Amino acid sequence: MTSYKHKKVITIGIVNELTGLSVRQIRYYEECGLIYPDRSKNGTRKYSFSDIETLMNIAEQREEGVQTREIKHNMLKKKNKQKVKEEMLRGQINAHFHQR
Q: Where is this region: Disordered (predicted)?
């Protein structure tokens, strides 16, 4: 079951209200590949609470002067580290159960 934080149900207007980011900024971060909203059948962007947290993090970094491409680089690095950790854990679990 998907956590409520990851369900894409929030419209861009509400994201704008919650984050203080302009619709233009939100769309720009999507174009840069920093967030990935879903689209409804009529093309409306739908965001999750997790997306909102990501946008707030992006906004904080931008205020500190971090460039968008650097933010993306750091996000990819973090995602890759997490993937490696998950693979290592999966390997440890498999090794543990196959030893028996």
A: 66-85
